[in-house]
């Protein structure tokens, strides 16, 4: 039941309201980027200085008249509002403007419908679409809207609406069951990674901050990356190797945006849980964006909603090649912990510093010891080598092997327990004095 969308290239008249309070204010430039990402043609842009929205049209009746004239003059196919409209406001505006009207949520849903590639992604988008559509069903039956029900008044309009609503409820339940199965499968995969003690690093950030470009650079993958909003929708996981850390799972996720519709957050919860379960979040930030502080706040807001705001986070300021004279660098807090890295994923600048920062943040609990092994412990020696943990080796005067080790404590403990050793006892007996 995945909805067919209109062909791209539709002529759209865009409406943006100024003067709203800070909580509901939207960015007109971001609005234009959303429209471009959806494939619509910007026929006209109308800015309305309105402080108090009206319940019938959101804007005043005089502005509706201006908007109707603008649509006709520019032969607009649809009108897109950079704000959330109620179902009744959409219906009233369509009746007055005699063309389709969609709001910001509908626009974002359309972009998501275009970007979804995997079966899971399509299910999540369809769930959000159905949820959005369920409050707007009456629009298709306005010619029967006088049939409101009641004794002697029940008619085909209400019957069809009830049928549609029932079908929607059935389909929503089907999708939620399928997504629950997806969530269960993801939980199993995460448990397997935890058993193998492979850390997960998740890329998060505002849409179009460069997450996919950075992901491709670090993993030598070919995930779709483009200068447009929501270029990445489906989560992608790759395994990489980091010095001192070993294997790490890197996850690329959907970008966030101002006032991301709550129904989208709910629909994509199975995907966003990849971030909520990560060992380290890389918050990718467009360093050249003048609105980066506001964008960072929006990312924190979504992370709070999915329960990931308390996770360890490393800020990655990307696109420094767009800032004249700026060089890659690390920044630490007062405790000496790396909290910020400045890079350019596209130009490959500062990636060595980023690798160092990730390794340091994940490797706070490292074992760095010089140990002595007996001849009978050759198997344990081989396992230390297989784990890439041996920095150097020499033969002691008594013929025993002296190893300089550096590895994650979790890996160290796992290797020893596999050989029947308690880590504390092993260190007491084998550490070079």
UniProtKB/TrEMBL annotation:
Q: Per the entry, which co-factors are needed?
A: Mg(2+)
Question: Which Gene3D superfamilies does the entry mention?
Answer: 6.10.250.2860, GTPase HflX, N-terminal domain, P-loop containing nucleotide triphosphate hydrolases
Where does the chain bind GTP? 205-212, 230-234, 252-255, 318-321, 344-346
Q: Write out the entry's keywords from A to Z.
A: Coiled coil, Cytoplasm, GTP-binding, Magnesium, Metal-binding, Nucleotide-binding
Give the primary localization class: cytoplasm
State the superkingdom: Bacteria
GO MF terms on file?
A: GTP binding; GTPase activity; metal ion binding; ribosome binding
Q: Which InterPro entries does the UniProt record give?
A: G_HFLX_dom, GTP-bd, GTP-bd_M, GTPase_HflX, GTPase_HflX_N, GTPase_HflX_N_sf, HflX_C, P-loop_NTPase
- CC terms in the record's Gene Ontology section: cytoplasm
Q: In what residue span(s) does the Hflx-type G domain sit?
A: 199-366
Q: Where in the cell is it found?
A: Cytoplasm
Residue runs in coiled coils: 165-192
Assembly: Monomer. Associates with the 50S ribosomal subunit.
Role according to the record: GTPase that associates with the 50S ribosomal subunit and may have a role during protein synthesis or ribosome biogenesis.
Q: Hey, which family's this protein in?
A: Belongs to the TRAFAC class OBG-HflX-like GTPase superfamily. HflX GTPase family.
Protein name as it appears in the record? GTPase HflX
Originating organism = Halopseudomonas sabulinigri
* Organism classification: Bacteria, Pseudomonadati, Pseudomonadota, Gammaproteobacteria, Pseudomonadales
Q: What is the gene called?
A: hflX
């Amino acid at each position: 039941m995945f909805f067919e969308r209109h062909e791209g290239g539709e002529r759209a008249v865009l409406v943006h309201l100024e003067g709203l309070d800070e909580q509901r204010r939207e960015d007109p430039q971001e609005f234009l980027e959303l429209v471009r990402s959806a494939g619509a043609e910007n026929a006209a842009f109308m800015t309305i200085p309105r402080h108090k929205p009206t319940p019938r049209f959101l804007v005043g009746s005089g502005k509706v008249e201006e908007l109707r004239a603008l649509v006709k003059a520019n032969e607009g196919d649809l009108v897109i509002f950079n704000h959330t409209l109620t179902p009744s406001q959409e219906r009233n505006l369509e009746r007055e403007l005699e063309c389709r009207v969609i709001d910001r949520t509908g626009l974002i849903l359309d972009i998501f419908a275009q970007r979804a590639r995997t079966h899971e992604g399509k299910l999540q988008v369809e769930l959000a679409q159905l949820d959005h559509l369920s409050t707007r069903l009456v629009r298709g039956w306005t010619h029967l809207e006088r049939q409101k029900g009641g004794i002697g008044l029940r008619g085909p309009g209400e019957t069809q609406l009830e049928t549609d609503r029932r079908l929607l409820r059935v389909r929503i339940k089907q999708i939620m069951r399928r997504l629950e199965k997806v969530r269960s499968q993801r939980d199993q995969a995460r448990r397997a990674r935890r058993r193998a003690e492979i850390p997960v690093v998740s890329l998060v950030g505002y849409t179009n901050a460069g997450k996919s470009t950075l992901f491709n650079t670090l993993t030598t993958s070919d995930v779709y990356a483009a200068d447009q909003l929501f270029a990445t929708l489906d989560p992608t996981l790759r395994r990489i190797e980091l010095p001192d850390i070993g294997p790490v799972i890197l996850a690329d996720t959907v970008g966030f945006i101002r006032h991301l519709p709550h129904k989208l957050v709910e629909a994509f919860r199975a995907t966003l849980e990849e971030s909520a379960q990560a060992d380290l979040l890389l918050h990718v930030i467009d360093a050249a964006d003048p609105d980066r502080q506001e964008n960072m706040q929006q990312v924190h807001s979504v992370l709070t909603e999915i329960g990931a705001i308390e996770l360890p986070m490393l800020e990655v300021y990307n696109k420094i090649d767009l800032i004249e004279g700026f060089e890659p660098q690390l920044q630490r807090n007062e405790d000496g912990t790396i909290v910020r890295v400045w890079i350019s994923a596209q130009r490959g600048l500062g990636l060595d510093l980023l690798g160092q920062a990730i390794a340091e943040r994940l490797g706070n609990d490292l074992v760095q010891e010089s140990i002595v092994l007996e001849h009978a412990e050759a198997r344990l020696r081989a396992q230390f080598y297989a784990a890439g943990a041996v920095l150097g080796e020499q033969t002691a005067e008594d013929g025993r092997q002296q190893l300089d080790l550096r590895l994650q404590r979790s890996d160290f403990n796992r290797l020893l327990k596999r050989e029947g050793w308690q880590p504390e006892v092993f260190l007491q007996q084998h550490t070079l004095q």
